[in-house]
Amino acid sequence: MMKDRLEEMNRHISALSHIIKDIEERMKASDVSFLKVTIKLSPVILDPNTASPQLILSDDLTSLTFNKSRQPFPDNAERFDFFRCVLGSEGFKSGTHSWDVEVGNNSAWTVGVITASYQRKGDNFFKAGVWYVQYTGKEYVSQSPEQPATRFSVKEKLRRMRVQLDWDNGTVSFSDLVTNTQLRTFRTVLRETFFPFLQSICESSPLRILPVKIQISSI
């Protein structure tokens, strides 16, 4: 069922891409200079096949909520079984990619990236192969394979986070969208595919991937 939902979502994204291309071509052919079309797309679609049994994903696969009760999910190799995490459905092995996460009033969350080959089972997940920023409810912590867990302070409580992966230049950076403040930047040698990941241990407030607006206008 989860696989079917993900495949259906990917079909919708593919169809939307064709619609955008068709609109652009028609606008050019008709020389319509005043027409503008704005659409919203999610830069990251969550992969239900990786989601912890204690996470509930939204129907559009862009938000997650922690649930104390474990759902009867199959224990496939891709799925987290200890930490309450989920991955994005698309991995990146070149270029620059960014996505925004609304953490809002969530009291215990983690956002970051992991390598495709990194082990997701058991309780060793945060010991290597992970680049992240985390809020424990009391403090903010960042970590990478090159840097042990390090506390850092912020002027205002984080509400919206941006994660940016520059694969070609080997950087993973985190910033506060509200204050436009750079929080942490990790520099490393990237050799394999990287996936976005999120974790939540808060029942009262979800984590949500924010959509990006794309405006199409004739040239």
Automatic annotation (TrEMBL):
SUPFAM superfamilies: Concanavalin A-like lectins/glucanases (SSF49899). PROSITE patterns: B302_SPRY. Pfam families: PRY, SPRY. InterPro entries: B30.2/SPRY, B30.2/SPRY_sf, Butyrophylin_SPRY, ConA-like_dom_sf, PRY, SPRY_dom, TRIM/RBCC. SMART domains: PRY (SM00589), SPRY (SM00449). Residues 24-216 form the B30.2/SPRY domain. It comes from the Eukaryota. PANTHER family: E3 UBIQUITIN-PROTEIN LIGASE TRIM (PTHR24103). This is Zinc-binding protein A33.
